[in-house]
Amino acid sequence: MTETHQTEQILPIESLCEPTKFKRFTEQYNGFTSELKYLNELDDIFLTLKTDTAQIMEEFFSKLKTGTKVKIPFPADRLAELTKNSKYCSLRLKVLNRKAHLDKAADKENILEAREKVNQANFDLQNLLHEKGHLRREIEKCRENRFTFKDILLMNEEFAARTPGHSSTLVVNSKMGIDDNNQDDSFEKISSHHLTIQRFKNEMIECQRLEAERDEKRRKKLLLTQELAEKQAKTVETRREIEKFLVASSILRSFIVTQPENDD
Questions:
Q1: Which of 7, 46, 130, 262 is the least crowded, having the fewest Cβ atoms under 10 Å away?
Q2: Does the keyword Repressor apply (predicted)?
Q3: Which of 78, 106, 134 delimits the end of a domain?
């Protein structure tokens, strides 16, 4: 009887399900037992319960077939141990169930946080793409617009006349291998880059010259203003002296006019 029970106990679990399902179940089971180490203890207890239950059922059915009175001898201490183990297994299962629920709730929170981060990242990406498209449109508009500086020639007669001796042009010509004797065509032969640099240098020189002229005119204006103020002060003083002289001359005139009458 014991041998039959042992033969039934050795039946592999692979025979109860498909190989793919068994493999997936084994992977999940191994991952779960690696997280909860005390499941090995539960496996031993469940195996013991299964063995005892199978033994009891086998004795019950064998006696039931023979027609004998069914009375399964089972020690009280063994029954108490099985009851204790079953309660322990039930408690462990409750702990596992509670932990599984807590892990599920934590996973849900983590999933929600990750989903919010993904949504925020997608929103930021959409904003960046929108801003990128806006900047591209603005750049295209700026490229299509015509500006006044594009119509200004880098080289004209005024610029050539304001460049004394073409000194900067000669420097560029010496670097580019252009003959210095052919100064009339030198402005046409130099590259636009060097011509632009030369024009900027000339504009800077002109700005400095105009700034110096403005400072000189301001200085002259200040001197003229001071001189004018001094002349105005002298004019006022002279006018006062003339008024005093006129008053004194009127008194003297009246005295001279009245003097001959007294002599008569």
A1: 262
A2: no
A3: 106
Which stretches of the chain score pLDDT less than 70?
1-45, 63-65, 67-76, 78-79, 148-192, 259-264
Whether residue 115 lies inside any domain: the answer is no
Measured distance CA(87)–CA(99) in Å, rounded: 18
9 and 87 fall within a common domain: yes
Q: Which domain holds residue 47?
A: 2-106
Angle between helices 19-35 and 39-66 (to 10 degrees): 130
The rounded Cα 7 to chain-centroid distance in angstroms is 70
Domain count, the chain: 2
| pLDDT single digits (tens) 39-87 | 666 666 677 777 777 777 777 777 666 766 555 555 667 667 777 777 7
Nearest Cα to Cα of residue 186 among 152, 153, 155, 144: 155
